[in-house]
Known about the structure:
The chain has no helices and eleven strands. It is mostly beta strands.
Amino acid sequence: VQLVESGGGLVQPGGSLRLSCAVSGITFVRCDLKWFRQAPGKERELVASIISADSTTTYADFVKGRFTISKDNDKNTVYLQMNSLKPEDTAVYYCQARTVLMRNEYWGQGTQVTVSS
């Protein structure tokens, strides 16, 4: 099983980035998918999720209205569109896939997002 994130980088406050997470080795359509982030010295926190059953999405309060999670079942890829970025969004962002049936969890290696002028 592999989850490979991409799309991170340095962006100015107010800017946008789109993260991608390509998933292989598991049945993508039978996974709930989540994005987490971890800033230096802080615990990892849930940012957004999309469930396999009906693609219902949920967001942490601190990103509501700014971030959008989506997925492409044909490409086995989950995305996180991040708009109106703030310095406090600086963190390593991780994607997670959890199989619905067995609830096995798989993680990507993370991608760094830095918001700074």
